[in-house]
Amino acid sequence: VQLQASGGGLVQAGGSLRLSCVASGLTFGSYAWGWYRQAPGKERELVATINSGRWTNYVDSVKGRFTISRDNAKNTVYLQMNSLKPEDTAVYYCAGRSPLSSKYDSWGQGTLVTVSS
C-alpha cells in the first residue's frame, strides 16, 4: 500500500490550495478516506472524511471552506481548501480506512501547508 500526498505550499491568507493523495496497492473505491493535519506543538486533528458512499464530514473549523472529494477512477482523494487562514498551517496527511477496519490504517507521508498573514 502506498499513498502519495501532494499540493501543499505557501499561500497568503484568503488563498486556496488543493491537496491530492494518490493511492495504490489497495481497493480504493471500498475505502473511506480522511485528511488529518498536525500543526507545530499540537495534536493531530481529523479535518475531513469521505466514505465509499461519498458522505462527507468536516471539523467545525473548516466547514464551508474545505471540500473533500474522491475520484475512484484515478485512485485519488482531494482536499480543496479555500479562504485559508494562518491557523490552517500544518502538515496535512491523507489516510485510508479499509471496510474491515475501525480506524484509519493506511497513511501518506504528509504535505506542508503554510498560510501567511
Describe this structure in words.
With 117 residues, the chain is mainly beta. The strands form 2 sheets. Strands 2, 4, 5, 6, 9, 10 and 11 form a 7-stranded mixed beta sheet that branches. A 4-stranded antiparallel beta sheet has the order 1-3-8-7, with no helix packed on it. It is globular. The protein starts with a strand and ends with a strand. The mean pLDDT is 97.
Relevant terms:
mainly beta, 11 strands, 117 residues, globular, 7-stranded mixed beta sheet, 0% helix
Short description:
The chain has 117 residues and is mainly β. Helices cover 0% and strands 52% of the residues. A hairpin with a 5-residue loop joins strand 5 and strand 6.
**So what's the overall shape?**
globular
Mean pLDDT: 97
Secondary structure tally, helices: 0
Structural class: mainly beta
**First-to-last CA distance:** 37 Å
Gyration radius, rounded:
13 Å
